[in-house]
Structure formats: C-alpha cells, structure tokens
Amino acid sequence: MPANRTNLRRSLAAAAALPLLAVALTACGYGSEAKKDDNVAPAAKGEKLSADTVKIGYFPNLTHATALVGLQEGLIAKELGGTKVAPQAFNAGPSEIEALNGGSIDIGFIGPSPSINGYTKAKGQNLRIISGSASGGVKLVVNPDKIKTLDDVKGKKIATPQLGNTQDVAFLNWISEKGWKVDAQSGKGDVSVVRTDNKVTPDAYKSGSIDGAWVPEPTASKLVAEGGKVLLDESTLWPGKKFVITNIIVKQSFLKEHPDVVEAVLRGTVKTNAWINANPDKAKASANAALKKETGKELPAKVIDLAWPSIQITDDPLAATLNTQAQHSVASGLLKDPDLKGIYDLTLLNKVLKAAGQPEVADAGLGVK
Description:
This protein is an alpha/beta fold.
C-alpha cells in the first residue's frame, strides 16, 4: 500500500484536536483585499427574523459555488424572509477572518486552514464551523515538457497559493511522504515551493518561472488551458476521494444572538446544494454568471467545463479530513498543536438536514459540548 495512503489512514484514526497555522493563511488565496457589495440584496417577502440584515462573506471562486449560486438564484434570501442579505466578496482567508472578528461579516464561506488558524489565534472564542460546502477541486498541474512523472517533480519549481494555506500544507505533506526534504518557511529544498497568488499563477506558468502548481479550481483548469497537464488530483490521496475545501463559519456572538437567522441561512445553503447537485449544468452557468458580476468576466467554457466536475458540493463538513489537514500542518513544521475542541457546532445544520429527510453529519469529536 502506498505510504501516503497509509499515513492518511493513520491520521484519520487520530481523534485528538489538532493544529493549524499560526501564520497568515488563505483558503484559496486570490489576494488580500475584500470587495464590498454596496448593493444590499433586497429582502424576500416574509416576516423579518431577529436581525435586520445578515452579512455573508465568500470568495469569487468555484469552490465557493454554494455561495455563488445560492446568492445568484436567491435561494438563501428566500429562506430569510424580510431579513436582508449583504454579500461581501473576499480575495483571501485572513481578510475574511479579520472581517468576521471585526463584525463586518456574520457568516463566511472559507477554507479549512484559515478556519483553524482563526479559531486557534482567538483561543476558540471567535468562530464556529457550522456546515460544509465543498470537497475536492485541487490539482497538481505541470508543464508536460519538463515533468512527465510524479518523481520528476523533484528539483522543479512548483507554485502554491500562499505560505501555510490549504494547498501549501497539502503539497508540503505530499513532498514529505515522497521522502524529499523542503524547508517549510522558505520553500527551498528538493522541490522549490514558490508561493504565488492564484491571480498571477497562469502568467508565471506561461513565462516559465514555475514548472507547475498545486492549486484549486479554477486556477488549475486555467493552467490546463495554457498547455499544462493534470499530474495528480488531490482527491485521489484521500479515503473516498473526499476532503474539505470550503466550510461555512459563523461569528459566535451572532450565532448566540440570532440562531433563527443562522438556521435560515443553512436552510438556504442545504437547498442550494441540493439544487446544484440536481441541476449541474444550470448551476455551472449560474456560478459563472455570479463570477462575471464579481470579476467583470466569466470563465471560458474550456476552463469551467473542466473545473466543475472535480468539485463536490456537500453539506457534510468532512470534519475528520479537516483534522487530518491540521495534522499535516504540524508535521510540516508550520504549526504547534492547538486545541480544536469546539470548532464545530453542527446543531442547526443537523436540525435542517433532519427536517429535509437527510442524514445528520458528524463533527469528528471536535464539536461544542
């Protein structure tokens, strides 16, 4: 059995609360600035809940399809009745965590690394993970003229979005399991890990300054459109080919003061995810339309058609895989062991799922008491 599969199974067997980054992280790094949507979405018809407005953060990224489609189609707003939705797009995990801590947003779609980093830096006092959103959508794409096999990655320059981000941790762990040595902080060693903003990674690839990248969608498929080859889909390294790439988090004070609003948002996300999975072509078009609103242009068909099938939309937070990703970060030397106990509160999600006739999801022992 390959070493990486054995290590992953051992990791998943561990139940203790574990680490993640004490460095600035991003989920799927697209820069560092937040983009405010000054046009608060009009409230749907119905009675207003306990809050006048709910402020929701997300990334203009396909791995945030639940937010893109749920807001685009009005599926989240519909569940909120007279309570308005104020969407806000972010380009990086740290800025979204800062916005949550400062009250600029109440609920956010975000990756596992910044979720854990934000939670541990605040000593467990700022956020809870209340739902999953997406799995997968991460690939190692390389220049096929320079890299033909996985062993050929040794000695090459491979980009990740940011030091310590979710993909950076995954790549460092993969390197370690290959038996190669890399200094996690500098990225120097048997492989040169080049931390590069996803926005510029395709240009870096075209210029030859990198030989490949371990990146999320749609960046991976943008590289393929430039002639790159998918050498490895990260999902193949995980049991069942599932691992968390996007969570939904909430500010703890907002959850305590407005549980009815949080529950309504979760009803909207659960219905959105069901609609996405039942209508993949319509959902893909909806997500692309939302991206055009945010970025000014939609993804070309050759990019989105390749990227979309690799992302699994799910309500399950896949908590055991978040725990494993935290262990990978510790093993890579990027983190000390933090206490993740209480990072999940899946009470309202499981209530919504039960009402929808769906099975409940688990928190891998990391839920609130």
